[in-house]
Amino acid sequence: MVPRVWHPFTQLQDFTPVGTVVGAEGLWLHLADGRRLADGIASWWTCLHGHRHPHLVQAVVHQAQAFDQVILADFDHAPAVNLTERLVALLPGDLNHVFFSDDGSTAVEVAIKLGWQAHRRAGNTRRNRLVAFEGGYHGDTLGAMRVGDRDTFAEPFLDLLGRVDLLPWNDADALADFLAEHGDEVALVIVEPLLQGAGGIRIGDAAVLRRIADLTRAAGAWLVADEVATGFGRTGTLFACEQAGVVPDLMCLAKALTGGMVTLGATAVRAPLFERFLGPTRREAFLHGHTYTGNPIACAAALASLDLIESEGTVARLARMETQWAAAAPGFSALPGVANVRWKGGVFALDLVGGPGGYLDPVERRVHRAALAEGLYVRPLGNVVYLWPPACVTDEELDWMLDVLRRVVEQEVTA
Ligand SMILES: *Cc1c(COP(=O)(O)O)cnc(C)c1O
Fold first, then answer.
1. pLDDT score of 202
2. How far is CA 22 from CA 28, 33, 37, 126, in A?
3. Class of residue 116 by CB neighbours under 10 A (exposed 0-12, middle 13-18, buried 19+)
4. Which residues contact 71 (CB under 8 A, 6 or more apart)?
5. Which portions of the chain are predicted below pLDDT 50?
6. Which pLDDT does position 415 carry in this prediction?
7. C-beta of 108 in contact with ligand 1 (< 6 A)
8. CA distances (Å), 66 to each of 69, 70, 232, 298, in order?
9. Which of 39, 29, 18, 105 is nearest to 388 (CA)?
């Protein structure tokens, strides 16, 4: 029987779920059949501290007891105000204003619309181009897909997406050439700083990011840093932009923002852009909003997650994983069919070569199943196998995960 629940990115003909989750704690997912699985990808990069951290649970319960969803269009409340203050204090430079939304895709939609309209608010209608990078991923809604790679996911929707200028990843010279010709037509440049995530876990250089920022600013376009995946320590600093000394004009946050408790997106904006939306009437305002904008329970969870980032040294923990990745890397590189072993902060990845490659490479399902049989949950991006564990993982658990992965890769590549 086909399921009624429509699982994402999943062919539902002949689909059997991995299991039914009945509990979760720290690194572990507990299933109805008694198995427990290590969550090697922090449930799509959200559960920063691990599952069900008591401090997060308590924050959500407390907020739910005080008040639930409240319309933010006319009201203030402490969770939204305090979260904004906390984020502004932590964000680089003068990213002083925060627009809340629902998830990463909406945080990106907001950034694109803000950047676009801000030029028009200044009377400039010439800036019609959106610049992004090959291999990029910014979400699955149409606006976010417009600035994503034209990959397997985009293929059915090409006619709906509109134009984007996709430039080579991690190549500031290509951007310089493009801007030399089209600089005054560009509304914004959107980039995943230092680490492309869902497009294939590709690592970029801080020096290139720095130049991208300088070139973008010199061209009069806005720089959008999509830190939905990299934000909150994943690359070894609280925000990836910090490693390049870059202050973007807009920054998108989601995924680990609430530590995996509930969904929340945020778009942080620098003062010069924010001020373009001030004016005597509502026409000058940003006429955009999502029903659950600034949801108090989500904001309370995010505040609690920021507490933990401070009290548990989360960023240092993720940065320290690099020692273990580096120690394990030669063992992977020595395997036949393994290429590009790489890591950054709390992320470790490699490519399995020899098959068709790309997202639909059948090696993905083989690695997924073989790892599950050993108690490790991973979900490769096609032929890109990676670990993205929660910060609560112990050194021993991390070594165990790497051991499992090495065995699985060895077995499945030669299979
Ligand atoms: C996951 C992701 C998004 C989309 O976030 P959703 O919460 O899935 O909508 C956007 N940008 C980046 C960099 C992401 O990794």
1. 98
2. 11, 9, 12, 54
3. middle
4. none
5. none
6. 63
7. yes
8. 11, 11, 27, 13
9. 39
CA of 76 to the centre of ligand 1 (A): 27
Look up tokens 């993205």; give the residue.
388
Amino acid at 343: W
How many residues belong to the chain? 415
Query: Phi/psi of residue 131, each to 5°?
Result: -105, 135
How far is it, in rounded angstroms, from Cα 172 to Cα 346?
25
Q: Which residue type does 315 have? A: V
- Which ligand 1 atom minimizes the distance to the CA of 44? 1
Centre of ligand 1 to C-alpha 407, Å, is: 30
H helix intervals, 46-121? 54-66, 78-90, 104-121
Three-state secondary structure call for residue 376: strand
The tokens describing 41, both together, are 């990808």
Of 44, 45, 105, 149, best ligand 1 pocket probe by most atoms within 8 Å of the beta carbon: 105
Kind and range of the H or E element at 405? helix 395-413
Sequence-ordered alpha helix ranges (H) in 141-205: 142-146, 158-161, 172-182
The Cβ-side half-sphere exposure at 84, using a 13 Å CA radius, reads: 19
Residue 146: count other Cβ atoms within 10 Å of its Cβ: 22
CB atoms within 10 A of CB 289: 15
Neighbouring C-beta atoms of residue 77, cutoff 10 Å = 17
Give the number of other Cβ atoms within 10 Å of residue 221's Cβ.
Answer: 25
**pLDDT score of 169:** 98
CA distances from 316 to 95, 233, 237, 238, 312 (A): 23, 8, 8, 9, 9
pLDDT of residue 413: 82
Q: What are 402's two structure tokens? A: 């790497």
Task: Write the CA distances from 367 to 8, 212, 305, 409, 414, integer angstroms.
Answer: 19, 36, 32, 7, 12
Q: Tens digit of pLDDT for each residue in 315-335?
A: 999 999 999 999 999 999 999
Q: Is 97 helix (H, G, I), strand (E, B) or coil?
A: strand
Q: What are the tens digits of pLDDT across the range 58-85?
A: 999 999 999 999 999 999 999 999 999 9
**Alpha-carbon span 120 to 97, nearest angstrom:** 20
**Best residue among 109, 255, 262, 267 to mutate for probing ligand 1, ranked by most atoms within 8 Å of CB:** 255
